[in-house]
Amino acid sequence: MLGSLFGKETVVGIDIGSSCIKAVQIEPTAHGWELVNAAVMPTRPEAIKEGVIFNVADVAADIKTMLKNAGIKANGAICAISGPQVIVRQVQFPKMSEAILRKSVKYEASKHISSSMEDSVVEFQILGDVPDSNMMNVMLVAAPRDVVFSRVSALEAAGLEPLVVDVEAFSIIRSFIEFNATDEYLDSTVALIDMGASHTDVNIVSCGEFALTRNIPIAGNSFTNAVKSLTGSLFEEAEIMKLQMTANQSLDEIDIEDPNSRCWRVVQPLLDELIREIRRSVNYYQSQFPEGSSDSHVSKVILTGGSARMRGIDTYMSNKLTIKVEIADIFKQSAINVERIPKEFLSEHGPILAVGTGLALKELMVESKRKVA
Ligand SMILES: Nc1ncnc2c1ncn2[C@@H]1O[C@H](COP(=O)(O)OP(=O)(O)OP(=O)(O)O)[C@@H](O)[C@H]1O
Ligand SMILES: [Mg+2]
What we know:
binds magnesium ion, Nucleotidyltransferase, domain 5, 5-stranded mixed beta sheet, Dna Ligase, domain 1, 15 strands, disordered N terminus
């Protein structure tokens, strides 16, 4: 690592979304962790599909410009993967050493994962022994090589050393649960739902631990495309109309003269379908426990991602799911000092910074463990 030879290694978390790129920089100070900088910029249209960056050079140039304009100086970066092609699953394997599992992990993973192993990158983490058995729990992550390496290449081409490739689900859990200044989520089960542009991730977290993640292909772009078809406008125009819309009325109250009402009429069925899929994920999680077990009760839904900014979405979703729904305010309850960053920036972009914040925190946690060791 040249950066560390010639001075301090500074790391930035970069969340390369299909609609928006976010950068977050956090530093350890004498008074704890501090958010020192953050930046957001739109991703070029069509640059990313199904998690793969097709336009690596342009995306890299944009990242470079974004960091420069925001005054973020970093030599290392951490990014994440997610999407329909990324598989994250907790599975059981016979007890074996990490070295032996590494040799056979692709073969073992192929028993649990249906997609082709040849073009996949497979990583794992041994979580611990299954009590009273000769098995152990392992977190398995598999993703197409293109999803991983197009991101690594974009960071490199932007002049950053890619330090780690994380999974978005883990990153959100880190920023919202592990770095929560309260113990609120350590003895309950919650669904952390990231509603982006191309997909929605449902992450169930039980007693602070990852339990499951599911990817649903309904998100911001689905809503914008519905408005686009309704109005015959360009995607960008439909996007602006969508941002003005409120998720609140029932269909029979709709005034068809009012453009917001007309947009809502075409978005509502899609949002309802998404909510049904979220309900299915919660039911699937709960089906793994004996009926009535308190461990299975999902007490709250917490929304992150740009589509969580749709006006009225929390109340609407809460009524449909009959679960409390909150928009994540990752910095309100977190152990990270945010005084340096303008309040308006955080209130506007807070929900979309969850992944980037978790990425920025990842390397810091590794660093602090190294210091303790
Ligand atoms: N006020 C708003 N109302 C409704 N939707 C919004 C609002 N603000 C942003 N969005 C939507 O949020 C989406 C972008 O969110 P985000 O930045 O989380 O996505 P992304 O991370 O780039 O996408 P993905 O992770 O799916 O690749 C866009 O679809 C955008 O239209
Ligand atoms: Mg995203």
